[in-house]
What we know:
The complex is a heterodimer of chains A (about 250) and B (about 525). Chain A contains eleven helices and seven strands. Helix content of chain A is about 40%, strand content about 15%. Chain A has a five-stranded antiparallel β-sheet with strand order 6-5-4-3-7, with no helix packed on it. In chain A, strands 1-2 form a two-stranded antiparallel ribbon. Chain A has about 250 residues and is of the alpha+beta class. In chain A, α2 (about 25-35) crosses α6, α7 crosses α11 and α9 packs across α11. Chain B has about 525 residues and is mainly beta. Helix content of chain B is about 0%, strand content about 35%. Chain B has two helices and 37 strands. In chain B, the strands form nine sheets. A five-stranded mixed β-sheet of chain B has the order 1-30-31-32-33, with no helix packed on it.
Amino acid sequence: MKRAALIAAMTAGAALSQNPAFDPEAARAGSKTYAAACAGCHGSTGEGGRGPNLADNRVVRRRTDAELAATILRGVQGSDMPPFPIGEERARQVAAFVRSMSAPAIDSPNPGDPVNGRAVFEGKGGCSGCHAVAGRGGSLGPDLTNAGSSKSYKYLRESLLRPNARIASGFQGVEVTLKDGRKVSGIARNVSNYSIQVTGRDGAIHRLDAGGIREAVYRKTSYMPADYESRLSKPEVDDVLAYLSRQSLRSAE
Amino acid sequence: MRIAIPMLAVAAAFGQTSFEDIKKGPGANWLTYSGDYRATRHSPLAQIDKTNVSRLVPKWTYHMETGRRLETTPLVVDGVMYVTNNNELHALDARDGRRVWSFADEDVPVKKVNRGAAVLGERLFFVTSDAHLIALNRNTGAVLWKKKFADFSKGYSATLAPMALKDSVIVGVSGGDGGIRGYVAAMSPSTGEELWRLYTVPKKGEPGAESWAEFNTEWGGGGTWMSGSYDPDLNLIYWTTGNPWPDYNGPVRRGDNLYTCAVLAIDAATGKMRWYFQFTPHDTHDWDAQSMPVLVDLPYGGKPRKLLLHPNRNGFFYVLDRVTGEYLRATPFVDNLTWTKGIDAKGRPFENPAAEPTTAGVKVCPSIRGASNWMSPSFNPATGLFYVPALEQCEIYMTSKTIPEAGKGFSGGGGDKPPLEPGRFYLRAIDPKTGKRVWEYPMPGPTIAWAGTLSTAGGVVFFGDDDGHLAAVDAATGKHLWHYQMGQQIFASPMTYLVDGKQYVTIASQTDLFTFGLFEPVKPLDPVKESTR
């Protein structure tokens, strides 16, 4: 994807999305029915339980509203999911709410100025020191080239403002001291009792055998600065999120 | 906290895979789909040899959660393994199969199989099912770019491992059974821009178009769905082409249907066709030419020659001069071969109208799957033998009278296995100098495998058999040495690599990647001393 394509993606925004964005009003109405009928199995925030996780769920993303509504009305044969004969209208509203929990940022309302967001991302915010977009930027944090399609708006917002609420899987900081005295620090991409694989600060992959490790010290907190809420203005936060929400591989030509 | 950008410039110095590295062929690393540019799928590694291969044991298994039918061959670069499935690529520690990172493009609207990645510099390249090429940083999995190289909405798709050359990445297209016009394309490794494109079917008015009579060659087929091979000295790419379309409906496309069911020699710099050789003119049996063109230098007719070896779905093992495309010899590598009485002195099969598919059905051998298919053959320079999975099988070929329409999944007919004739796979060793079969190893099984071979300097041929075993036989004699039951069928070809001084052999099964090595006792380990700060 070239810069030009990226910029085109920015201006076209959500118009590029293959799935329709959810209807916020229907989602609000649907949330009430969801809390009463669905949360018991799927969790009040869609985190799952007896039923599958519905938040950030790729299967949900691929379904149309009509398909989701039909699943709610008819249930899923051969599973614990019973039919919910709540009528077309309410089923559609619940479907909209379920979609809102899973919708990627590019398909969600993302107010803000993406052009200014990019300027903040690469400038004042210092984000590109650790995060790359289309090959530009650092490697200590997750690649954000496809952030808008792979993450929900809520997830991006939380990651920006409260990075220690959850550290992205495979991005915990570590400093490993080897038995021969060498030290490797970076991101623990994988940890087991028998080996640790680290993407080093040098950008290379280090495959470390447990037998050769003296000690591994993990960072409790994310490498990501936790002060963006005070470092950036509210509009700047919105702008950065608007920029990231538009980063998508869907627009590749 | 801020991380200074200049540090990243240092990172760029790590893990560079150069064109020269790939040219050297496999050693500790395995840098192309076939290991080398010449598609010999032969490794000089000899730690595992015919005297100790009986002590081969499973070392690790990697479960591909989305795997249903893995057809991939992994790459190994400096102890890191890169393995694909449809629209995803995973980086593993090659010693123990632990995942370092993974990338998945979840927005791709279709999932075909995927056969592997290419590496150049510190970049990995692989295709999505909807025919985009994606470049990733091999250390981090970060996306560098994604570029469309064919239009999925027009029937194109992609399944192949791309081939990275000095300054281009070569790709091809799938979709030849549905009415597309095939092509091979070169993309820039740095930007993904298309550098050249060579169509495998001529447009009206172009040379070769006369071989299609009145047929609309925009639908002519000629898919390019397997990776090719490359001769760096000649700077020629050898790429095979698929069937003409509609597959089984010959009368609507009278003529030879150039350049389908052929091998093309392509100038890597310009994308111009240097020569072509068509194995099956006017194919009506879906005999794509997609077995890898294997490049070897051997004495032939009393003088050293640069040869191209190719076992075709039509049942003949071909030897060509790869400088000129001159036909040298074709010999049957299966016994069940009825579609022609033989090949003439120029390499053209004798015509046999009785082998044309009919509405009632006609029995012809080999079958639609062909005497061999895309599963990799291999060549061992020490034994001088060529190893190929061969399928003895026939088919009742049928044609349809429906008017062909592109993009509707129409292939013009099909086939059925003759009752009580399921066929059988054999691993066969052929001497390219004579075309004669030297040994064979039978494989009882349901004839549903698509598993290829690997040759090593240890004097061993590894291959997936037709019943879910990875097996090893003596390269000189075909004598059984070792086997392991994977619990599922195999649709991939094996590879081998060395990390921390130990040789491993890896093959994908339907859902998992299995890796084997020589037995050694496990040393007790204490859990890693860890703390959090």
